[in-house]
Amino acid sequence: MDLPDPIALPPAARRFLEVTGRYAVIATLGADGSAHQAVIWYAIDEQGLLVNSRVGRRWPTDMLRDPRVSLIVDASDAKTGRESFVAVQARAVPVATGEQAMADILMLGRRYGQPRNVWEGQERITFRLEPLAVKVYGEAAG
Going by C-beta distance under 8 Å and a sequence separation of 6 or more, which residues neighbour residue 94? Predict the structure, then answer.
């Protein structure tokens, strides 16, 4: 499957995504073409976003079969009418299993306030989401 070359996250998107405690919603494509969404943790690295899951869940299984994903992080506030989000179209590339994937989920756990290893004994996989297109909207753009 030919996908465009990855792009760098724009600085405004990077600043927005680096704020601790924001969750992402990832959308993957099922084998039958149906969309599947999940709320996930993420971290930023030099080449995109890192995400990690237990092997066997639907969304990482989908990404191993079809690397096209969409991810959105929304910090809009309905009470104030303030809209702010970053949407990323990306290619999912598996980058770690085994010990490194376990280290990655421990890092994500600390980022999201889970300092204990509740993943002991799980088979984990880490993906890098390489951005192909990025939309920065509202206050996230400033």
Answer: 63, 64, 125, 126, 127
Structural domains of the chain, with CATH = 11-141 (2.30.110.10)
Question: Does 142 score more than 80 pLDDT?
Answer: no
pTM exceeds 0.85: yes
Assess contact for 87 and 70: CB atoms under 8 A: yes
Report the percent of the chain where pLDDT is more than 70: 100
Maximum CA pair distance of the chain?
Answer: 44
Distances (CA, A) of 19 to 13, 42, 75, 84, 108: 10, 11, 10, 13, 13
Answer whether 69's CB lies under 8 Å from 63's CB. yes
DSSP-derived 3-state class of residue 25: strand
